[in-house]
């Protein structure tokens, strides 16, 4: 049986087409076309180290200053976007310190923005889709 592959424009190579990879590739297009993120400002499968633990963030969006501004956690379509999925993305953020956390399974997408008000900590869900310029602001 031949294994199906797909071209990943971020890694610049063919990768195995798993259900999660299909969602990742779909969301790369969403980031580019809906949010205006240039391909060269995204990376997929980014190594994140938390203590002795090595993790991989599905997609990281970088701002004009080359610092991460968003992390995206992609799940296969049959995965429920629950607190465990959000917690996974938040763990990456312990290292990345991004303004936006995005979780998606290809059917549903949730976007959180860091609270920037004095005296407030954490993230809040947003209803709109932020543009790349807004992520940099």
Task: Tell me what the structure shows.
The protein is α+β, with helices and mostly antiparallel strands and 137 residues long. The protein has three helices and eight strands; from the N terminus they run ββαβββαβββα. It has helices at residues 19-33, 83-96, 132-136; strands at 5-8, 13-16, 42-50, 53-62, 68-74, 100-104, 109-114, 123-126. The strands form two sheets. Strands 3-4-5-6-7-8 form a six-stranded mixed beta sheet, with helices on both faces. The chain has a two-stranded antiparallel sheet with strand order 1-2.
Strand percent estimate: 35-45%
Task: Describe the global form.
Answer: globular
Alpha carbon gyration radius: 15 Å
Distance between the termini: 48 Å
* Structural class computed from helices and strand pairing: alpha+beta
Largest sheet: 6 strands, mixed
The percent range for helix content is 10-25%
What's the SSE blueprint?
Elements: E1 5-8, E2 13-16, H1 19-33, E3 42-50, E4 53-62, E5 68-74, H2 83-96, E6 100-104, E7 109-114, E8 123-126, H3 132-136
Parallel strand pairs: 5-6
Antiparallel strand pairs: 1-2, 3-4, 4-5, 6-7, 7-8
């Amino acid at each position: 049986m031949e294994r199906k592959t797909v071209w990943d424009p971020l890694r610049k190579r063919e990768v195995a087409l798993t259900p999660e990879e299909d969602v990742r590739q779909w969301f790369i297009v969403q980031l580019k076309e809906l949010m205006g993120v240039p391909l060269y400002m995204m990376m997929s499968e980014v190594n994140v180290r938390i203590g002795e633990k090595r993790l991989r963030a599905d997609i990281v969006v970088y701002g004009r200053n080359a610092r991460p501004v968003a992390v995206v956690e992609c799940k296969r379509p049959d995965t429920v976007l629950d607190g465990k999925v959000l917690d996974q993305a938040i763990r990456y953020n312990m290292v990345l310190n991004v303004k936006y956390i995005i979780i998606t399974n290809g059917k549903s997408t949730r976007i959180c923005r860091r609270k920037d008000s004095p005296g407030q900590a954490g993230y809040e869900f947003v209803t709109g889709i932020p543009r790349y310029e807004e992520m940099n602001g």
